[in-house]
Structures are given as structure tokens and as C-alpha cells.
Amino acid sequence: MTRNFLWTRSTAFCERVTRLELHGLHFQHLNLCERRAWMYLHCINFAQWHRRVATGLARQGTHYTRDHSTVGLFGLAPDRLDWDAHLVFEHKGTGGAPTAVDRQVAFYAAMLSIATGYTWHGRVSILANRRWREVNLGATLLDNLWRDSERLEALLRLDKVPQAPRIGLCATCSLAPFCGYD
Ligand code: SF4
To answer: Are strands 80-82 and 121-126 parallel, antiparallel or unpaired?
Structure first.
């Protein structure tokens, strides 16, 4: 069941997203690693040459074809939309980094909610085990998206790459050679 979408920060959030040209991956990267988000914000992105990313793209190509209903959604790139149920679908190879993935999907749901006036939710499908989980766009998630957008703006203004500790993700991060964590 869908309901009308009301968020007092809708206009300000949209303004920031448009001005900074933010999209879903910015929100995902921010919740993985601030340094990675800074690199991405400054267009330093080598992911397409990374073995793990290439495998993920191949898996997606094999399991799902992108829904044509998403074509033309400027700044949004979800894998599939159910316009009647107000659901955003995102397909991931594995179930890793759920917080970051959910924030990416929540961003799509928030932007579609603002645009349509109905509350959208998300569903993340895990290709490796064929399971899925719901992403409910409630007050807490909206607050988190707002804070993320503030952090992204601050990172964009930062002219030096921020310090970042080595974390578990570094072992598979495409930027590890640049951070010295390879
Ligand atoms: S290698 Fe580690 S510290 Fe560097 S961007 Fe990737 S996750 Fe962040």
C-alpha cells in the first residue's frame, strides 16, 4: 500500500542533489568509505577495470536485463521500477555492505517519492543466494539521506583527499593501489 509522500526537506534535498549532481552511487560510496566517496565526487573512478566489478556486471547481464521503464530518468539508475507498487529494485551480486546499498536504494526511492508525491520503497535482490530485502523509506532513513547529502557537500568542497583507515573493504576496493592499501 502506498501513501502520499511528505518530507519537509524535499525542496532543499532536491536543490542540493541537483546543484552537486549527486546520484545513488555517491550515497553508497559515502557509507562505505569517505575517501572513496571523495575520489568518486572528484571523478577518480577506476571501478570498471577492477576484476570484481567486471564480474558483478557480467552477473547482472546474465541474470537480469535492465527494465526499460528506467530509461530517461535523469540522474537515477535503478535496475527496475514497479510504477504501480512504487517499488525500486536494485540487484547486487552479493549481500555485502547492506547499509551502503540500502542508502543507494533509499536515494532512488526518495527522489521518486519527491517527483511523484507517493512514497516509494526499495527492494534489494541478492543474486548470489536469490534472496531479497526491503528498504523502507521512513523518517530515520530520510534523516540519514539528508545528513549524507550534507557530508557529500562538505567532501566536495574539500580540496585534499581525506585520511581513511584501512578497513576490510580495502582488500577488494578498486582504489586500493592509490591508497597504498593493496
Ligand atoms: S582502498 Fe580502502 S581507504 Fe582507500 S578508498 Fe578503498 S576502501 Fe577507502
So the answer is: unpaired
Report d(CA 139, CA 9) in Å as an integer.
Answer: 11
176 lines ligand 1 (CB under 6 A): yes
Over the chain (182 residues), the average pLDDT of each successive run of 10 is 87 97 94 94 72 56 54 65 94 85 96 96 90 94 98 96 93 88 87
> What whole-number distance in Å separates Cα of residue 17 and Cα of residue 131?
31
CA of residue 55 to ligand 1 center, whole Å: 20
Give per-residue pLDDT as tens, 92-113.
887 778 999 999 999 999 999 9
Distance, in Å, from the CA atom of 125 to the CA atom of 105, rounded to the nearest integer, reads 11
Please name the residues in contact with 137: beta carbons below 8 A apart, sequence gap of 6 or more: 106, 109, 110, 113, 119, 120, 121, 122
Pocket residue to mutate for ligand 1, from 170, 178, 182, most atoms within 8 A of Cβ: 170
CATH number of 10-179: 3.90.320
For the chain, the domains span: 10-179
Provide the whole-model pTM: 0.83
